[in-house]
């Protein structure tokens, strides 16, 4: 049976073997793909085409720019593939130091990806829908996204616990990830049961973006950092 990585119980960069640095770098790059694709697809591409509350205008915009609409869906699919990949990398990295939490984080991330992926199905028909049907499709997509973020919010809390348990990333990043998880949970639950409150907390989503960007940078920096050469003694 292959030996599991146990470097996360000894986080000194000089002790990281090359294979583990590769895993850290891969996780950072996958996180970069997730953040870039997610922000572009939802915030930029679809944000330019969808006018909330006015499905007629949204339908005209989508019909006029079908390539941009389809590319936004491709970007989401790329994000979800990267999510599955990073779930596997984190499972490998934390398997020894967090034998219970690591599989839990893996499962939570996969459920999130499955829900968001399913929520993309109505969007694939958007350019052929009448305005009223398009409004329902967008509502279904938003609902699927919010349901997925419930599981991702718990995943963030689990990741924070694993980082703290392994003595990694100091205090700020785990704390920021835990706070991000709370925001995702609060945002998704209010979207489902109290939409009025959800609208008021939209600015809070800036914290998860900053926290996950910082975590992404930390992962890549840790992976790319080379151990210092040990001076020879003679």
From TrEMBL:
Keyword check for Membrane: yes
Alphabetical UniProt keywords: Membrane, Transmembrane, Transmembrane helix
UniProt keyword Signal, yes or no: no
UniProt-listed InterPro entries: DUF4386
Domain of life where this protein originates: Bacteria
Transmembrane segments: 20-40, 142-163, 175-197, 203-221
Protein name: DUF4386 domain-containing protein
Protein source organism: Antarcticimicrobium sediminis
């Amino acid at each position: 049976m292959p030996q599991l990585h146990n470097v996360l119980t000894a986080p000194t960069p000089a002790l990281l073997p090359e294979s583990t640095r590769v895993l850290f770098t891969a996780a950072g790059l996958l996180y970069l793909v997730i953040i870039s694709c997610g922000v572009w697809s939802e915030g930029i591409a679809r944000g330019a085409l969808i006018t909330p509350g006015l499905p007629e205008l949204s339908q005209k915009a989508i019909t006029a720019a079908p390539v941009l609409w389809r590319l936004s869906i491709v970007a989401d699919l790329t994000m979800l593939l990267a999510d599955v990949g990073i779930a596997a990398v984190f499972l490998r990295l934390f398997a020894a130091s967090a034998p219970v939490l690591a599989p839990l984080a893996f499962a939570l991330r996969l459920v999130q990806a499955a829900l968001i992926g399913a929520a993309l199905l109505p969007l694939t028909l958007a350019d052929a829908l009448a305005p009223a049907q398009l409004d329902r499709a967008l509502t279904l997509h938003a609902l699927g996204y919010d349901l997925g973020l419930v599981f991702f919010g718990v995943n963030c809390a689990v990741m924070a616990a694993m980082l703290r348990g392994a003595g990694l990333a100091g205090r700020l990043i785990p704390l920021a990830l835990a706070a991000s998880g709370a925001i995702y949970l609060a945002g998704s639950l209010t979207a489902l049961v109290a939409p009025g409150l959800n609208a008021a907390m939209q600015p809070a989503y800036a914290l998860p973006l900053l926290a996950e960007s910082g975590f992404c940078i930390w992962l890549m920096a840790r992976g790319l950092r080379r151990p210092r050469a040990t001076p020879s003694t003679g």
